[in-house]
Amino acid sequence: MTLSPLALEDADSHLAGEDELLVRWLNGGPSTRTGTETYFRHCMEQWRVGGPLRAFGVRVGRPAALAGTIDLRFEQPGLTVGQVNIAYGLYPAWRGQGLATRAVGLVCRYAADQGAAEAVIQVDPDNPGSEAVARWSGFTYARQVRDENRNCFIWYVCDLSASLGRCF
Question: Which EC class does it fall in (predicted)?
């Protein structure tokens, strides 16, 4: 498994892999080609300018197939200086194989190298799969919060400075 920045060439694989769970937990609605390409261009621009978003494709096999996405947000409402938010989603064929846990470990290393002190995974209480990834990745329960839209999330955190952190 490898991680690399999302590219426009990933749009077809993303659209083909999207299912009801990704729509529900990550996308907020079914993706369209135009919307996906617009978002991927934004992700590419964030890499180019060193913006607060780092979106990766999770790639598996040879040739590498896009198995899902994972992103870091170094700035986001509710985060304090030094915190980074992690969000991930795998396509159905790739779930249940430990890939999300491995991807979280890789992005934690990257975030630590970029100066982040603590990683946060925000889990919807009705998403046990995401909660399992957070726990398997070594994150610990921190608190429940409500976002600006009054949606409830459980925060799991990992100290990235603790001797390379137990979460990677």
Answer: transferase
Q: For 43-56, how does the pLDDT look when each residue is reduced to its tens digit (9 = 90+)?
A: 999 999 999 999 99
Kindly state the DSSP code that residue 35 receives in the 8-state scheme. Answer: H
Cα separations in angstroms, 68 against 8, 26, 150: 14, 11, 28
The HSE-up count of residue 103 (CA atoms within 13 Å, CB side) is 32
Give me the domains of the chain, ranges plus CATH numbers. Answer: 2-159 (3.40.630.30)
Q: Where are the beta strands (DSSP E) in the chain?
A: 2-5, 53-60, 65-73, 83-90, 118-123, 140-146, 152-159
- Which two three-digit tokens encode residue 79? 């985060």
Compute the CA torsion angle 55, 149, 78, 49 (nearest 10 deg).
30
SS3 16: helix
Residues 138-148 pLDDT 10s? 999 999 988 87
